[in-house]
Amino acid sequence: MGKDTRERILMAALEQFSQNGYAGTNIRELAASLGLAKSSMYKHFESKEDIWNSLLDEMIAYYGDRFGSPEKLPPVPDSLDELVAMTMRMVDFTVHDEKVEMTRKLLSIEQYRDERARELATKHFLTGTKEMFTHIFEGMMNKGLLKKDDPEMLAFAYTTPISALIHLCSREPEKTDDAIAQIEAFSRHFIRVYGQ
After folding, report:
1. What pTM was computed for the model?
2. Largest CB tally within 10 Å, which of 71, 152, 166, 181?
3. The CATH number of the domain where 10 resides is what?
4. How many angstroms separate the Cα of 143 from the Cα of each of 83, 155, 195?
5. What is the domain range of residue 173?
């Protein structure tokens, strides 16, 4: 029961932080939304900051287990079409997973207030994905699937426009289908240019 309540609190906190930001989220209102007394919240978390940090820890693990990370690298594709398919699976997860979508909004809002949120935003929106694809592209070059080039620069060139289009999906959800189609077209263009 305690673990379920803790998870319910973190999910409700994610919803409220992603909509209202950290400062705009009130612990009393958060507790009331769950049918809990404010004092009940403190059986599970010491403070609002503890909820915040626990939530960030949970979302790092959630994202890493399902998407990958520089610490949990996905396998190197065995074909160019497999690169496109892997990219589109990652994009689909990133755009359509409710927890990831809320986390992206939360980090976008809080990156200017909280140092940890800023570091995570940089990692998830830029450096972490670039590091993953540096590894992937280096492996694909070694397999003879991609032209020899600087894998880090190639990863930067590949992931940056995809990340920008994912953020467009968050800002303007009505453009999601078009943005995903652009990402797939871009990925296919990339393999035509760099594929062996």
Report:
1. 0.85
2. 166
3. 1.10.10.60
4. 13, 17, 11
5. 67-194
